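Page 42, continued from yesterday. The earlier attempt failed because a stray header line got pasted into the input along with the sequence. Redoing it now with the clean sequence only.
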Amino acid sequence: MRRSTLLLATAALALVAAGCFPTAGAWTFAPPTPAPAVTPAPSGTATEAPSAATAAPSADGSTVTVSALNIAFEQTEIAAPADTKFTISFDNKDSGIPHNIAIKDSMSMEKFKGDLVTGVGQAQYKVDPLPAGDYTFVCSVHPNMAGKLKVGG
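This time it went through. Structure tokens are written below.
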């Protein structure tokens, strides 16, 4: 009797344990999402020129262009006028990935923070006047995305 009870208990334990572990090939979490594919431009078609590493303000000094691609800013240095409102024309080229632009002073105090833009998407950030000086711009989601902002002079 004892032997059959032990055998029955062992079989029951084996069934419970089998139910706790997935079978081969079963996912216990969502499968990884593949990176978006990049389709080359057809031959004979003009392609977009690479973005400059440094972006100067527009002719009127009020608009600066910044774009994000491959979890990096394409412009690593930008310039804006001092003591004047300006606009950052932001283009997030990373499909399905959120980015924004935050501006910080030399003490890492946030002076501006733009709304998140999930790519592919654009935003026009209206920035209040900043005094002349050197600032950094970063993505709040990806702090490794950073660049320099020269205001004035």
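Notes: The longest strand covers residues 86-92.
Reminder to self: strip header lines before submitting.
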